[in-house]
Specification:
486 residues; mainly alpha
């Protein structure tokens, strides 16, 4: 049992929690930006080394591992963060030991299932081996993130940002080494293994004394934990499945060339779509505590998070719409130029991803797993059907449109679930409308000028930033973080 000498979550009830969230969000965002640059550099190495069609196959296997991992993980990472923030003493210590054992066991099971699926689908031997290696890397990642739950619950966001950045740096170093060695696809899928070993050791040292490092092997306790969270588990798993299923389905219905083009655009979308979840995770412990104790505080927090998400999401879409050709050129090279059109379509899905993060975590805080599940199932059905139909005839662009339709359905479901019976959580649209009012002319101006993609994106983003400042759309809490301000 963990030798806990103090409660690391005491800050959640303090007046300093809000400032810690904002500063933590800035730290996590800054770390993520640097990590994203490293990630894109790694993708640039892989795409040029593997080529259009082989990179498509690499992405399909990676999506398969992600989907199976989401099913077997059963949403336990986010559940652990919520429960660690709400429980105390021995009850929490036992939960964390049980959770660590359960997550490791389920992920190992998932890795085995992914291998069987790869064999059943007729993947060649090299890709089956890649699925095995990627599954082992996933096991290490799950162990590291589970042990790191106390860091998130105590708002140690600078430490978490450093860990995220180190992961990307280790991954890039692994990719670069394999490119120099002329390695094949399976070797690239194995890169998370050495990176995971390093990070598990680092996190274990950081949390020693706050959480037990020994997993609890207790099938009855595992079943009890799964039984009390089945709705939560299904909702979070389906949410991951529906996004990555688009890549897998495209691999079945489209040509190898279109699969590769969609893979390039999809990787950019995945990187950007992770940003809102990362930022809201910083605030999730406080949301969970507020949902338990203070609904007014919850409504205030969700509203502010939604305002920031809307500004960032629309800004990201502006950058993608105007700079997609340059992004694809840098990330993947001239062979992938056709992916720019699919990436522009996915810019609409990026906007929705930012809004979904605030609403989704609010529903998690309220334990409203039913609404989460119903919305994600509807999104999965919509996206799968749309991708299967549209990707067959329109390739990468059709698959991208299928993802957009799924995000729209998910947003409608989250909003309905959150506001039904909770009028205080109805979103205020003022900031989002200001963002759209500024973004539309900014994009129109740069397209009218006919600027090359990279300068066009910079000009459009500059116009967007000036516009939202002029309209006073930026929350005062963010402005107060500027140097010299209180």
């Amino acid at each position: 049992m963990a030798d806990v000498t103090g409660d690391p979550t005491d800050i959640l009830d303090s007046p300093q929690a809000g400032g810690s969230i904002l500063r933590g969000g800035v730290l996590r965002a800054g770390g993520y930006v640097l990590g994203t640059l490293l990630s894109l550099a790694g993708i640039a190495l892989i795409t040029r080394h593997l080529g259009l069609e082989e990179f498509g196959r690499y992405s399909v296997v990676l999506s398969l591992i992600t989907v199976v991992g989401a099913v077997t993980d059963a949403g336990m990472g986010t559940l652990g963060l919520r429960e660690f923030s709400q429980r105390r003493g021995e009850d929490r210590d036992e939960l964390m030991r049980t959770l660590l054992g359960l997550r490791l066991a389920l992920t190992l099971l998932g890795a085995g299932c992914a291998t069987l699926i790869a064999l059943t689908l007729g993947y060649r031997a090299e890709l089956v081996l890649g699925a095995v290696l990627a599954g082992l890397g996933l096991v290490l990642t799950v162990g590291q993130t589970t042990l790191g739950i106390p860091l998130g619950a105590s708002l140690r966001n600078g430490t978490l940002a450093a860990i995220d950045l180190l992961r990307q740096a280790l991954t890039l170093a692994g990719f670069a080494t394999l490119v120099l060695l002329g390695a094949d696809t399976a070797a690239f899928l194995a890169v998370p293994i050495p990176a995971g070993v390093v990070l598990v050791v680092i996190v274990a040292v950081l949390v020693r004394g706050q959480v037990s490092l020994r997993p609890r092997v207790a099938p009855r306790a595992w079943l009890a934990l799964l039984g009390t969270s089945v709705g939560f588990a299904l909702a979070t798993a389906v949410g991951t499945i529906y996004v990555y299923t688009a890549q897998i389905l495209t691999g079945f219905v489209a040509s190898d060339e279109q699969v590769g083009l969609f893979a390039a655009a999809f990787r950019v979308f995945v990187v950007l779509a992770a940003v809102p979840g990362l930022l809201i995770t910083v605030a999730f412990p406080v949301l969970a505590r507020a949902a338990r104790d203070d609904r007014d505080r919850l409504a205030y927090g969700v509203g502010k998070l939604l305002d920031v998400s809307a500004l960032l999401g629309v800004g990201a879409a502006v950058g993608l719409l105007t700079g997609a050709p340059a992004i694809i050129e840098v990330m993947a090279g001239p062979d992938f130029a056709g992916a720019a059109r699919a990436l522009r379509v996915l810019s609409l899905a990026v906007v929705m991803s930012f809004l979904l993060a605030a609403w989704g975590f609010a529903l998690l805080s309220l334990h409203d797993h039913r609404s989460l599940l119903l919305a994600n199932v509807a999104a999965l059905a919509t996206s799968a059907l749309a991708v299967a139909l549209l990707a067959r005839g329109s390739g990468a662009e059709g698959a991208a449109l299928g993802v957009v339709l799924g995000e729209l359905v998910l947003a409608a479901g989250y909003l309905l679930g959150l506001t039904r019976g909770r009028p205080e959580l109805r979103p205020r649209a003022a900031v989002a409308l200001k963002a759209l009012a500024v973004a539309a002319p900014a994009v129109a101006v740069v397209f009218a000028l006919g600027l090359p993609a990279a300068p066009a994106a910079l000009v459009a983003l500059a116009l967007y930033a000036l516009g939202i400042l002029a309209l006073r759309a930026v929350p005062q809490e963010l402005l107060d973080l500027a140097p010299g301000r209180r």
